[in-house]
Amino acid sequence: MTAFAYIGAALAEIAGCFAFWAWLRMDKSVWWVVPGIASLALFAYLLTLVEADHAGRTYAAYGGVYIAAALLWLWAVEGAKPDRWDLIGAAVCLGGAAIILFGPRGG
What is the mean pLDDT of residues 20-39? Predict the structure, then answer.
């Protein structure tokens, strides 16, 4: 469930932020903000579904997933292919997220 919550949250957050980007930077209608706000609310809800004891750890691990998802958005939606440095950076971030999520915790 955690992986699906993180992936869904990342897509919802990026879509919500992109709606504001489209309105403010691409001269789209202010009505783009309406689904953007709904998407950002969905993002916040989905993060509550992550199986973790502490919100801060959930958010920290989510950061790596967000970075990887943002690069997929860059490619799939904006048509700009990530370069090797983007991919290396995303791999490092996902590694960090895995350490945060799966690292042994003292009692």
Answer: 98
